[in-house]
Specification:
- With about 140 residues, the chain is α+β, with helices and mostly antiparallel strands.
- Helix content is about 30%, strand content about 25%.
- The chain has a 5-stranded mixed sheet with strand order 1-2-3-4-5, with helices on both faces.
- Strand 3 and strand 4 (about 70-80) form a beta hairpin.
- The protein is globular.
């Protein structure tokens, strides 16, 4: 079952976020998730199997600078390692795309790190119709 994240789901995200390389401390980070849940432009979906959250997609609806309209940007996407390569990622990605369309977004976009351990994720996105279009840059301030 795919559904929107609820506040009481936050405690169930620890393993998924560690898989992403985003370890979370629920005592200190829960407030951040509550802020995201309450922000009208942020959307979070989970995929649940047998009362266990096995996948997460966090997105933000954004406005284009270069033209009129809006797009959805996937900021976090993960499937529990025990459930990968079983079609759950495809289902969650399709539902995320449907939500973006329902919110009148023209495109959906994401970044994925260039680390070797991300190669399978890159293949997954390409196999689901995404194409490599840009390079990302970051600078700590």
């Amino acid at each position: 079952m795919i559904r929107k994240l609820k506040e009481d789901d936050i405690l169930k995200l620890t393993k998924l976020f560690k898989t992403l390389g985003y370890p979370i401390e629920l005592t200190t980070d829960k407030h951040r998730f509550i802020n995201l849940l309450n922000h009208p432009d942020y959307h979070m979906l989970v995929i649940e199997k047998e009362d266990r959250i096995i996948g997460f997609c966090g997105m933000c609806k954004m406005l284009f600078f270069e033209k009129n309209g809006c797009y959805m940007r996937i900021l976090a996407f993960v499937i529990d390692e025990d459930y990968q390569n079983q079609g759950y990622g495809k289902l969650l990605l399709e539902e995320s795309e449907k939500l973006a369309k329902d919110l009148t977004c023209d495109i959906i976009t994401l970044n994925s790190g260039n680390r070797k351990e991300r190669n399978n994720a890159h293949k997954f996105y390409i196999n689901n119709g995404y194409r490599i279009k840009a390079s990302g840059f970051v600078k700590s301030l």
